[in-house]
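histidine kinase, Acanthopleuribacter pedis. Tokens?
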Amino acid sequence: MSDNERQKILLVDDTPANLKILGQCLRDRYEVSVATSGAQALHMIWDRQTPDLILLDIVMPEMDGYEVCRRLKENPLSRDIPIIFVTALSEAGEETKGLELGAVDYVTKPFSPSIIRARVKNHLDYKRAQGELQRQNHMLQAYARMREDMERISRHDLRTPLNVVINLPQMLLEDDELELDEETRGCLDTILRAGYRMLSMIDMSLDLVKMEQGTYDLKPIAVDLVGVVRKVVADLRTHAAANEVQLVTHWPGAPLAELFITGEELLCYSMTANLVKNAIEASPRGSAVTLSFLPDPTHCLSIHNLGVIPAAARPVFFEKYSTYGKEGGTGLGTYSARLIARTMKGDMGFETSDEKGTEIVIRLPRFVPAAGLVP
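Tokens:
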């Protein structure tokens, strides 16, 4: 290690013989400086480059080691410097006092050079590791801030062209002077609905961050889950057909006209759409994804497909960024779905096997008229 890279140690002792012995123990590995009083040590530390570690005698005239340690720990410039007390005192109370003031270690005179070197090395290695962890933590925080800024900018920049995607077909559809045939109107309506879905996705990305932080302001209303499922099935039917998968809705008894739960419609749609889309992509070709409304008051919907979740993926199925064997997968679909369910005071779980495939069961609070919510 070069002189510029060598770690710096300050020895503080009013006895020249002790300074000489300590210096001989450490100079071959470290850059060593000395101070013969507490006042001199403070002046050196605060007016020059701070050392990486201090070996500090306790019994010194005018200002003892305890007072030096106290002042160092009170000053932001020096509070993080590790201090090892070196003293002839051996009372347990003295050692406790030094540690309570912020010292990291305590060695007594007469001392062994090998022990001094080992203690110094251990504490310097620990400090260096702490510094590296702190540096990495600062980098991660900077990356997180940069990611949030980029996401915020992206959401803003996406809204500008999206205004055209939404407003232009809407203007054309509302223009009575245009004689649009049904096929053209259908195409414009498809563009319009796709634009609104994209706008909802942009808004949802910000909402998911708030859900993770526990700051999302839930505004629950009575939501017709049957209506939400119908929208999801209609919007994903083309995707299902491309994967040669059927979408089937199932009622345990007579078909329900409506099933009200307490939540937010956009959240319900996003949660259900994510799970159905995943089920479509996990299904064998020629099979079906079945959405079943459940009569159990604590459960409301299940989504079943014949695909099987790999054993390695099951413990982390709902974890963030967890994805197995899915090309282009982000690992956010099931994670965001469960996060949404929990935000709406519900939850979800799954069962999977080679014999039965995979079923995800969603639990959401049923609508209670007495709660003052109007369907």
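The mean pLDDT is 84.
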